[in-house]
Amino acid sequence: MPKLRVGIADTLEARTLAWGLLKGHHADLFETVSHPVALIGRLLEQGSVDVALASSIEAARLDGLEVLPDLCLAFPGQAASLLLVSRSPLEEVDRVVRTWGGPTASAALSIVLAERYGTRPEEVASEPSGLSPRGAIPRLADLAVGEAVLLGGGDALRTGTAGYRVLDLGAAWHELTGLPLVVGVWAVRQGVHLPELPFYFKSSLRYGLSSLGAIAREAAAELAVDSVALERYLRDAVSYFLRDQERRGLEDLFRRAARLGLVPERRLRLYEP
């Protein structure tokens, strides 16, 4: 049987879920590739990968995708790595610069701003810096009146925001909905059948959870941040399990995004081997 092609979003949080696969576990079954999160949906759409740790909004945007049960990337409350930063009051923001390519973060922000502040600001993308300490993080001092920047991942964790107005997207989502913000899922293309597929991906997560120290040290070296704080963030701020609350949060995200016209109306479809 040909190997299944697995796409992995190149984000800090994704490493925990994908750690076993990234370290070559079950290499006889899976071939892995890592790409910026904004490209993963395109690879799924083109059929270039069979399974992908993708931005969860892609499961609503794209036809024929199913979601592996039990696993996800979610923020039950404060995210710390998804921050909207501005000089202006948030209800006066009319332009958002997005440095991080996460479609779910973009959709969730649009929903929060529309439903909580009654605004629909223009959004423009900037080159994401990912995990590189040399990445082009926008200088907050350069923000104009009415402008905000959405920082994600490493950018958010290592950028000082004292003196600015800051909206933590995970906390804002929970205040709005009472549910976790599910930012990533294992998405499976239609026609992919492997009876024990969920087992292999759960095994990858188990290895990641047992290796949080190593993951944090590796990422901290790239980001030039404290590894202890990074390990605490990965352990305490991120949920990796698609339980009832996370599933309801994902379904609620789909509904609210559809109401804003960001995705088609679509129900969550769980993978059945």
Task: Give a verbal description of the structure.
The chain is α/β, with parallel strands linked by helices and 273 residues long. The chain folds into two domains: 153 residues, Periplasmic binding protein-like II (D-Maltodextrin-Binding Protein, domain 2, 3-Layer(aba) Sandwich); 96 residues, Periplasmic binding protein-like II (D-Maltodextrin-Binding Protein, domain 2, 3-Layer(aba) Sandwich), CATH 3.40.190.10. 38% of the residues lie in helices and 23% in strands. The protein has ten helices and twelve strands. Strands 1, 2, 3, 4, 5, 11 and 12 form a seven-stranded mixed β-sheet that branches. Helix 4 links the parallel strand 7 and strand 8. Helix 1 crosses helix 7, helix 4 crosses helix 6 and helix 8 crosses helix 9. The longest helix has 16 residues. The chain starts with a strand and ends in a 14-residue tail after the last helix. About 3% of the residues have low confidence.
Which features characterize this protein?
single chain, 273 residues, alpha/beta, D-Maltodextrin-Binding Protein, domain 2, seven-stranded mixed β-sheet, five-stranded mixed β-sheet, 10 helices, globular
Percent of residues in helices: 25-40%
- Tally the helices: 10
Based on the structure, what is the oligomeric state of the protein chains? single chain
Structural class: alpha/beta
Do you know the CATH architecture of the largest domain?
3-Layer(aba) Sandwich
User: In total, how many domains does the architecture comprise?
Assistant: 2
Estimated radius of gyration: 18 Å
- CATH top level assignment of the largest domain: Alpha Beta
Low-confidence stretches: 128-136
Rounded to the nearest angstrom, the distance between the terminal CA atoms is 16 Å
| Inertia-based shape | globular
Order of helices and strands: EHEHEHEEEEHEEHEHEHHHEH
Work out the strand percent: 15-25%
Question: Describe the biggest sheet?
Answer: 7 strands, mixed
- CATH H-tier superfamily of the largest domain: Periplasmic binding protein-like II
User: CATH topology of the largest domain, which one?
Assistant: D-Maltodextrin-Binding Protein, domain 2
Mean pLDDT: 89
